[in-house]
Amino acid sequence: MNQKPVIAIVGGGFCGSITLVQLLKQSDIPLEIVLVNKNNPITTGIAFSSYNPKHVLNVPAAKMSAFPDDPDNFLNWVKSKPEYREYVNEELNDRFLPRVIYGKYLEEIFDNAINDLPENVTVKIINDEVLDVNVSSSGAELILKENKSFKADKVVLALGNFLPDDPRIQNKSFYQSKRYFNDPWRKQAVEGLDESDKVLIIGTGLTMVDNVYSLLDKGFNGKIYALSTNGYFPLSHKKRKPYTDILDEIHPPYEISSLFKIFRKHIKYVLSHGITGEAVVDAIRPKTQEIWLSLSLDDKIKFMAHIRHLWGVARHRLPKEIFDHMQNLMRDGKLEIIGGRIQDIREDNEEITVTYKERKSQLIKELKVNRVINCTGPKTDLNRVDEALVSNLLKKGLICCDEMKLGINALPDGTIIQNDNSISPVLYTIGSMLKGILWESTAVPELRVQARSMAGELIKQLEQKQEANA
Ligand SMILES: Cc1cc2nc3c(=O)[nH]c(=O)nc-3n(C[C@H](O)[C@H](O)[C@H](O)COP(=O)(O)OP(=O)(O)OC[C@H]3O[C@@H](n4cnc5c(N)ncnc54)[C@H](O)[C@@H]3O)c2cc1C
Questions:
Q1: The whole model's pTM is what?
Q2: Pocket residues: Cβ below 6 A from ligand 1
Q3: Which domains are assigned to the chain?
Q4: DSSP labels for 344-397?
């Protein structure tokens, strides 16, 4: 039997590793923490272990502290590093720094925390895959792929983002092709092309832009097509005064059609005063979780069907210099953005033929390319995720999809709601798996708050259990 209560964290990206750091900061009880992570580097995960220094953060440096109660922590860290002197000037707060620099920051936080463990707390890091979790009245047993299983009192699923879903086409066998890349975050997606080949990127968001940059860095000189159903292109970040007047008019109970009316009125107002419409989206951001939590299912479905894409464009913006670069590529005909729906993709020895229905004309058109990269964003419907742990937990009813199929069903604090609607005594989740519950559950400004609360809640529950057993 374990002497100390054990907290297992599955996944060692930002969420898993900062939850661990927060447990070390907050723990005043004896504790064993076991972090199990597969595939990606610990702490940096997919996002901040980027292979290309031109991949930059999409959040300004001033908002990227890993700690909600120390908002300047990242800025101060950058300022303390002679190697990043070039970034330290009056622009630093608003700058979009390379993601690899942010990765170094996270590594240092993690290493410092591990090297300075509180008395009575032990940490074990295991590079392995958790295949399954068995839950009983005494806690959980985690089944690993390579190592022995182990027991834990609490388990946090910090699983991050899954690979994108393959678009629905007739010829599904294309997805086995060596010329199809469904992991847009690995460098293989942009390697091995002839410089005059043609590439289709499916998706027109920030990951598409990362891939365009990486292709150019590899000396690629051919044509790049980027296709999404709407053909929206990300907007540019602009310096402007915050606009918060809309907040005076937004009060519960929230209802999507009245919110939309208020929203439209303020967009009209800001545009007529020379302010960009994104200012209104930014103003609402602190209230987004509260609004989402209280919307009816019907309203959430309406939002997903009619507003989600526009919201995404306004929320996930590009630094101005990158936006300008992309505009130049479009002007020069090197990058073409297409609005349309893919119907089919076939290939022969020579090339790939992509058939799509163009949005504007509704005509069926064809593209001839040499590679297809899927940048449509992470898959969210757990039933379609090809991960042993997710399938096993679903099968046992220990987790289920939230009502929007955007992640795992849970309480807003991350406590998992099981398939029979009961509250799991053992399983918790954090990060993108909470998107269906909170909507904004993607970027560091909200994830750092989740990590702090999750750590506090787990410690509190373990303390209560100890007191009850005393
Ligand atoms: C390309 C990209 C760029 C981004 N840029 C920014 C940005 O600039 N600013 C910002 O605020 N946010 C950004 N984000 C959002 C980003 O997702 C979060 O900020 C954060 O990195 C997510 O961390 P995570 O721990 O949830 O997921 P991840 O970093 O994906 O970590 C999850 C880890 O869990 C592991 N895992 C999953 N299942 C198992 C299992 N069964 N067993 C063991 N291990 C498992 C995975 O392999 C992975 O290592 C970006 C995201 C991406 C994808």
A1: 0.95
A2: 10-16, 36-40, 45-47, 57-59, 99, 129-130, 158-161, 185, 389, 431-432, 442-444, 447
A3: 6-162+380-469 (3.50.50.60), 172-235+318-374 (3.50.50.60), 245-315 (no CATH)
A4: EEEE-SS-EEEEEEETTT--EEEEEESEEEE-S-B---GGG---HHHHHHHHTT
